[in-house]
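We were asked to recover a plausible sequence for a given structure. The inputs and outputs are reproduced exactly as logged, with field labels preserved.

PROBLEM: sequence recovery
POSITIONS: 165
GIVEN STRUCTURE:
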């Protein structure tokens, strides 16, 4: 039942966390807000914000490695392909008892259904990009992004956050 509740909550997050517009300045603000919060909390994460095909922000905090950049690439591939958060895709596969390889034939070397990749949606337009973090546990990577976007958009994090495990 918790899995179904998480999947429903992830869909609500993606529905509510839509930007009125998104450009390079918005991406920079989002990336810097994520970075400042990560530094304040002592997180060792890498952060990426992109419009599809175009990098707009990247920061690797002390304690990260090139492996974090690769995790971001794999999460980004999932968001770009499915237009859903990488965590939502991963939980959907878990519910089905399948892997991305079994269901879609896509290589795990290039795609990962782990938390930390979130679609950037623009109201009336749809998915235009990706924001990702790598370095925390999957659920925490996802929750961190949701918290920061909710704050930027004036949405209630208490209504959108996943239940504590």
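RECOVERED SEQUENCE:
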């Amino acid at each position: 039942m918790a899995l179904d509740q998480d999947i429903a909550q992830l869909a609500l997050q993606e529905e509510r966390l839509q930007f009125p517009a998104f450009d390079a300045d918005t991406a920079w603000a989002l990336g810097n807000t994520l970075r400042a919060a990560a530094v304040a909390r002592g997180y060792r994460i890498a952060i990426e914000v992109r419009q599809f095909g175009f990098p707009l922000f990247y920061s690797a905090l002390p304690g990260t490695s090139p492996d974090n950049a690769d995790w971001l690439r794999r999460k980004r591939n999932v968001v770009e392909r499915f237009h859903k958060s990488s965590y939502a895709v991963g939980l959907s596969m878990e519910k089905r008892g399948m892997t991305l390889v079994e269901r879609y034939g896509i290589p795990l070397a290039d795609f990962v259904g782990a938390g930390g990749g979130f679609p950037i949606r623009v109201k009336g337009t749809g998915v235009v990009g990706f924001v990702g973090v790598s370095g925390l546990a999957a659920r925490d990577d996802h929750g961190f992004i949701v918290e920061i976007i909710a704050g930027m958009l004036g949405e209630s994090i208490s209504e959108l956050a996943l239940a504590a495990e």
